[in-house]
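1st attempt posting a full record on here, be nice pls
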Amino acid sequence: MKNNLDFTFVKYKELCGTIVESKYATLTFTHYFSLKNIPEKFIILRHDVDRRPENALEMAKIENNSGITSTYYFRRKEEVFKPEIIKEIANMGHEIGYHYEVLDKAKGDLEKAIKIFEKELNEFRKICDVKTICMHGNPLSKWVNKDIWKKYDFRDFGIIGEPYLSIDYTRVLYLTDTGRKWNSRFSVKDVVGANVNQAIEKMKSTDDVIRLINEGDIEQMCILAHPERWSDSFGAWLKELVWQNVKNIGKAILVRRAYYGKEGGGSVSEMMQEIFYMPTDEETVTLFRGRKRRKNAYYGGFKNLL
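the predicted structure (as tokens):
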């Protein structure tokens, strides 16, 4: 039976299967930044591991079983920086990168921030080779971590690229699951400066991403999936759903003030209509039907729903 619940590992397997069956090649960021001959059609799969590194490991296994390699950017925080998990993911052939947030940690002090960067980068390199980095964006912070490179040069540290600075997103379509919407509607720091494709503005579900890949009209794509947003555990899935919807309230206001204030872009009340993820009729039946009937209708690995 087809899985109709979004942001589950079952749905992610479906996404990976679609990529494998498509005409797209899959690249890591190291491939993209270093290869002389880039495939005409490609997808870069990116994962920012902000929380729940065990979820990143599960996604890495799904990709490995599908014959896909991707890039995982880990934060240097105690609950995320798990050397054994990082090493296991790297051993599958995936790329490991450093998800830096040094301006936030240094409270804007550039000299202190670059020292933190070098120290943390070296900690990652004790585990595996790191050639690319990607900033972490905290919507509540007044600092933008990539701004450190206005003074310093990441190439001086053996880094060959940074996705927010080294890719032309007028040529590479950027899709992110921020806000569980896939349309960048609730991205505050996770923005790339390119005009949003009109077709992307209407995207809300992973099924929309799957349809886009099947259509094959976009030649080059970067897809960002945050591992903490995906789970086959009902408790974790529901917790993330509720927490993300709460965050989207604040993000809706921040996004409107930052990007739409002078040009309209819809009122806050209009944006609020898109904030809350509401399960489809099929999802509602799956989630809330009687216990006995649920036993006969749960999808894939969604066993913790019982």
